[in-house]
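Loading example: each entry is read as two labelled lines plus one structure line.
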Amino acid sequence: MFALVDVNSFYASCEKVFRPDLAGKPVIVLSNNDGCVIARSAEAKKLGVKMGELYYERRNYYRQNNITIFSSNYALYADMSNRVMSLLSMYAPRLEIYSIDEAFLDFTGMAHTFNLEEYGREIQSTILQRTHLPVGVGIGPTKTLAKIANYAAKTWKKTGGVVELSDRSRQRKLLSLIPIEEVWGIGRRISAKLRVMGIYTALDLANAPVATIRKTFGVTLERTLRELNGESCIELEEVRKVKQQILCSRSFGKKVLDIETMRKAVCDYAERAAEKLREEKQRCQIIGLFIQTSRHASGEDYANSTSVKLEYPSSDTRDIINAAMRGLDSIWRDGYRYYKAGIMLSDFTNSDITQFDMFSTQKPFKNSDELMKTLDTINNSGLGKVWFAAKGGDSGCQMKREMLSPAYTTNFDELPVVKAKM
Amino acid sequence: MKLELIDSESIINIPLFLDRVPAGFPSPAADYMEERINLNSTLIKHPDSTYMLRVEGNSMIDANINDGDVVIVDSALAAKDGDIVIASVDGEFTVKRLKSHPPMLMPMNPDFQPIHIGDAQDLQIFGVVTFIIHKAQ
């Protein structure tokens, strides 16, 4: 048996923990640079705020409806997430952290000793008491059914946020109510295809012939079908899968006309990509770069990309900036209005021991790992920011976070205030 | 000059014994070696449910909680009669002593009035105050 536990409207709920005045009130959280809505409290959902809608287009609506708006506060969310995950790990011998706000728990061997629904409610009330965050719990014999149970817990208020789905007839009844696109791992494209085949609900898929599904969609969907029928095929992944690529790209607020401005932007992306690479504890050997003009803009179109291979796998920002700059020189053309650029790192290795090319002229920087670690520590401390001179000033690239809440749990100078005035 | 950033979490305290260690004979002090005091583990029993809040106001001065102090609050503990708690009342956090019969939030300063917890009031206990940090200077 598996459980899927996730926090309801995670970012918005985190913002509410230290703001008792916002209890029962609509709250939304914006993406980096205050671009669009990435989280909505239940009250904001009720007011019709949609995921991903653009902040500047709807700000008047938010004001008229007294919706409280926050910039994303990742220091707070990461700390609250760690608390939730650490508490969840007490409830099962094995845990898979699936995302910042959800985790699978493995209840194998526990079904006979525990009433799993009661156990789920205990998890829910403990997390609420200790972190003040509301969670939903779905329990089922497979990860896919646990996901569906969780969806049901969210969708139907009467469940109280906990659904246990070990009973086969209950499974079938629920599957008939779940639209096919809500099934774990089924994207929009596959669900459109399935609909053409007359498969509209999770139950339709569960009843479909295995051979046909495998032949048409491959083994992944076959596994989903089996999981819907209670046969566990998807293992718990205790160790997070290592990324195979890291991409950093953004469209510019103002079109870029000269190579100097483009250099600064590319350098900024290179820096962030290298940081992510080190977070993954990986080194890369291929650095891809692309620049493009807007397809909708009148006039000539230009888009080009290139990739540069390093002589040794590296996670040193300096190597990545160097490669990106060489790449930029080879694809840059004057006279265009560029609107987007990006960097992609690939060909990862995690090994510290590297076989160097005998004829290689380049050598890794001395003490590179120590320097990069120091850089990352400074930049993550929130105290200051160190960056590479090639990027120019920090001004152009700094994030817009105008409605940022305090780092309540991670900065001693920003603790929440308790009044002793009544 | 060589600069090195020291990560305070990873500092390992190594006790230094004042007695010399005679070669070939074990130190009799080795049995008395203890770990250094770690404030985190001493003051915080449940790290996942512990929060710190800064106090504003004087209604708890008889409980040694003064304006500007920081309180350590554990949300894992069930609040019982006589505990100092953080409660949210009418959309604001307040620190008070909890009285169960009848349910009341008691200030600890004669200049302030108790808060009766009626049905009308929206009250939530956020956690129990376990330690008070007061700056001496």
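Strands of chain B lie at 50-56, 70-74, 84-89, 92-99, 104-106, 115-116, 123-133.
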